[in-house]
């Protein structure tokens, strides 16, 4: 185990650091998609410097899965960003962040001589619902335009399967409605490369650029090439209108609209065409005449299509032999026409492969609609045609589910795509040998699916509040009352025994009650509102309830951290946003009564600025406080103050918070196994213990965050130990399941294509860390490597995994899992 490392590995270790992704100007670096979004503005600034321009960058947005860790990554890279004149300013919410980005393009309106830079380029970021709420800003800013040395990219984090969201979302259509061209990178490298193109296109055409990211891409990691001169930008020959296409003042709404509709979109299309951002990856042997099938895809769907072809036994050479073309789309809207027509020419059929609702498919049909019927290929995507009838469209289907080809709901997999490709190929006169070959591969795929179906499926591991989480107590309501949920970790109360029903979008917490109370005999409700959501937009929900005069109690859950996305500071500023500020605001808004409930009432003894008449109560009397508040007319507010348990754990490890020298243990011989401690605490660290006397309870000391709620059970089996430390076994006395001798050198398998590994487990136990270790190891050895992780709610004790794919080169890996 202590054998010396091979020389090439030792040298690689000396040359590789985890900061390479930010510190290198040229070379190879292992990075995630999120980290590529951090590196992107640095590359743009370096390109501008090489062009002799002194530019700066500005980044603003609001966190949310799959971009939940982007702001934290930006903070960690602060010194590298500062060196490149790049400013990161988190937004209070998405639309205000977008408005700030709009401001970066208005610096030309300033008095002459006041600007410090030749231009400022910007990145906006937000989760899919954040894109929805920004549509007004996007429309205004996009019509106004960009500057020649500025440019803006709006990066959307989409959750196609609602893995960590209250609804599945797809930002393509919102970007399109706002007039933003939509880039869709298929891997980490393309986030860098297409990102550089997106900035260049934004500057050239005067439009904002949209960039769509999804979990499978932006939360994957791989080796990427860093080089500010890697992308060769070609400026197209395009006739601009008098005065150009860039932002100006004064300007009128109709003049802006005319520039966008008549010039800016077409300038963007010219850029896409000149730089071949959409191109054929596989071309048939017939020179554009008589190829059978064309496949067109982008982003993840492109990766899955590549894998689907391999699953069918169709490598690139076989595809060419069969007359199969594959067209990769880097910009999904607007779909560049010349490349689309060249791709379609000579094909008998086109299969459009895209997840969610149609974007590319509708544009392909639009482009080919007026072709003569003898040269126009049949176009299918979400649905196959009625048997023998090619005349109808999507809405003419009497039973569309019977003709679904590639579903619009949820997501797609290589297996689903492989079945669709096989179905369409077999309609295009394949010879018997090839048909049998494809059928054989399909049989393998179907056998795999059947094997998964016969597995005994246990109950899903439901995400839960962390041990010691404040929500374990704060989301309880008195008997006879009910609550409404909202966005945040407390959302998980809807699948617990908490009389919590319904939820809203972020910032709408409690407002459904405004529409309900006039029509029900039930005259009061509780609404849970997280502190991060309160600062983002939830304050307006409270204002609406007060304005409507309804009887509602808001429980503002102050956890001192945005726990859902990694424990970021509340308030988007260094000093945070305090309970006192919330109390002052609620008093000013006109709340009928306000009380602070906390696990540490003593910390308010010397607090300054708290409005008069606000009581400080211990969390043990929360039920009594709620019973009082539900009888009060109007809108009342309970501010529940207790620090996030996970954040407490982090701070204790860093030494910035006192770690109480107190632990709880259970005497199993006294424990009667009633489970009241679990009922009182709702804590995952109170675990079942099977004994010869039946099921008892035990405290998992490694996960316990010392909340002490379990003591509310008043059980004689509970013992508190103060000042003691957990006993550790000496290493040489630790039991080993095997007698280990000298470990032999492993025999490495010969890899043909990609070799897959899945690391699975419970969120918070190091699963993703293992995936990252394997990823960095592959990078150091010069292998092709891709890892893809599951974050989001998984970190709350739910199921999580890390997919690892490795090959001899990066080109051997087609997808991320």
CATH architecture annotation of the largest domain: 3-Layer(aba) Sandwich
Number of extended strands: 27
Q: What is the CATH homologous superfamily assignment of the largest domain?
A: Thiamin diphosphate (ThDP)-binding fold, Pyr/PP domains
Helix content: 25-40%
Strand content: 15-25%
How large is the count of helical segments? 26
Unreliable sequence segments: none
* Spatial strand sequence of the major β-sheet: 3-2-4-5-7-6-12
Through-space gap between termini: 31 Å
CATH topology of the largest domain: Rossmann fold
Q: Report the top-level CATH class of the largest domain.
A: Alpha Beta
Report the radius of gyration as a whole number of Å.
Answer: 29 Å
Mean pLDDT: 91
Characterization of the model:
- The chain is an alpha/beta fold and 817 residues long.
- It has 5 domains: 9-274, Thiamin diphosphate (ThDP)-binding fold, Pyr/PP domains (Rossmann fold), CATH 3.40.50; 278-453, Rossmann fold; 471-643, Thiamin diphosphate (ThDP)-binding fold, Pyr/PP domains (Rossmann fold, 3-Layer(aba) Sandwich), CATH 3.40.50; 662-723, Alpha-Beta Plaits, CATH 3.30.70; 755-812, no CATH class.
- 33% of the residues lie in helices and 19% in strands.
- The chain contains 26 helices and 27 strands.
- Helix 6 (94-104) runs parallel beside helix 8 (135-144) and helix 8 (135-144) crosses helix 9 (172-178).
- The protein is globular.
- The model has no long low-confidence stretch (mean pLDDT 91).
